[in-house]
Amino acid sequence: MDELLGRRAPYSAEAEQAILGSMLIDAACVPNVVGKVSGEEFYIDVNREIFDTIFAMFSMGKKIDPITVLDEMQARKCLHENSRDYLRELMEVTPTAANVARYCDIVRERALLRALGQSASEISEQVYQQGGQAKDVLELAERKIYALRKQSVTGGLVPMTQVLQDVLSQISQAAAGGSQLPGISTGLADIDECLQGLGEGDLVLIASRPGMGKTSIALNIAVSAAKTSGKTVAIFSLEMSRQQIVQRMLSSESHIDLYQLNQGRLSGEEWSRLAEAAGSLSNVKIRLDDNPTMTVAEMAAQCRRIDDLGLVVVDYLQLMQSAGSGNSWANESRTQAVSDISRMMKVTAKELGVPIVCMSQLSRANEARQNKRPMLSDLRESGSIEQDADAVIGLYREGYYDRECEDPNSAEAIILKNRHGRVGTVYLRWIPEYTTYVNDERRHGEDGY
To answer: Which domains does the chain have, with CATH numbers?
Structure first.
């Protein structure tokens, strides 16, 4: 198509050749080069073949020079009649390997322009297709542009050697950090110990019956994550208004009774604590959206525009609109709609590369049992929710069912599912006047993790 329209695809043959020549002249620059460019970013086929050959040799720890590269090309069946002369030419046209980083930048920039052109063509094709909805095309466009901004490719096969390098780097960082969590802290030590923090791309469900405090623990986690990570936390509340959310945060942060706070019945000392709490919350990067008709696509679109996003909190799953129409459950069963939403949530978490903490309702099934502690099967309109989630935490308080019990504010966070570690029970304490959960002095039960 470009040729028919007289357009030339963006690429720099000189920069591609200079990169290859630099690696042949000075093998010491190879580690830096393979960390900056990939074979897919080379436009000229023969250059891509040579780069992939050198990359494979580097991954296997082989010595890299013109002779060994030729031998490897023959083994990989990509040796051509003029390959020897071409390698010599690459070395001759490369003035110095000192500028290889700049050559890499040029190649990456041209590759990005080509990818942008390809995405624009695909978006344009969708626009002119009959029957397409504008919001669907807009979602496609945003996803493609976001993927380019992150220099990522949706799908596609990646060499295991590249993944191994990433994993080994993560392990090395964890070892160097000692007891530092690999994920974002929830602010609740025992939950962090079990989950190892909230990991990138994880979907974490917090499930309970209404009034158990799942919104409160979600806000606790949001504030803690914003403070410890220094990144932006996005909160999408489909049930409570932004003002109600901030009131709860202020109550928890200032240790002032929520009822008294809302009534404005504060002492002089409490006004001081309130001002201090407001100042503390003003210093963290939290964004709020209380649109009750939010869809996953709309949520993802907003999150893509946040450069330093660290965590997404959604309250709650069953209130979110289905992507199919403006009506949540139009033309589809409730279970199927919630299943689709949970799957989209997981896909969005992976795409954004941040954890999503999502609240979920439990059905009444547990109330018919003598032991009312939640189970995975109690997830309301469960469908595939428990399959999509990386971790599921069920909240339980004996005082919720029996206010005359010995310790009505004792709480349990039951790790029902955990892809990254162990399951079991974590003990917490519920402080109703501040609508907050805190760590409990007890550590683990016999059935704990």
So the answer is: 1-153 (1.10.860.10), 181-439 (3.40.50.300)
270 backbone φψ class: left, alpha, beta (φ>0; ψ -120 to 50) = alpha
**What digits encode the pLDDT tens for the residues 203-237?**
998 888 888 888 888 898 899 889 888 889 999 98
Which positions are catalytic? 239
Burial annotation 331-362 (CB, 10 A radius, 16+ → b, else e) = ebeeeebbbbbbbbbbbbbebbebbbbbbbbb
Of 321, 352, 412, 316, nearest in space to 198 by CA:
352
For residues 230 and 232, what is the distance between their CA atoms, to the nearest angstrom?
Answer: 7
- Whether this prediction's pTM lies above 0.70 is answered by no
CA-CA distance, 257 to 259, in Å (whole number)?
6
Cα–Cα dist 104/56, whole Å: 18
pLDDT above 90 covers a percentage of the chain that reads 7
In sequence order, which ranges of 39-99 are alpha helices (DSSP H)?
Answer: 45-59, 66-75, 83-93
Q: Distance between CA atoms of 126 and 145, rounded to whole angstroms?
A: 15
Complete DSSP assignment for 175-199:
HHTTT--SSB--S-HHHHHHHTSB-
The number of C-alpha atoms within 13 Å of 435 and in the hemisphere containing its C-beta is: 21
- Count of beta carbons in the 10 Å neighbourhood of residue 243: 10
**Bond before 316 cis per omega within 30 degrees:** yes
In angstroms, the CA 110 to CA 116 distance is 10
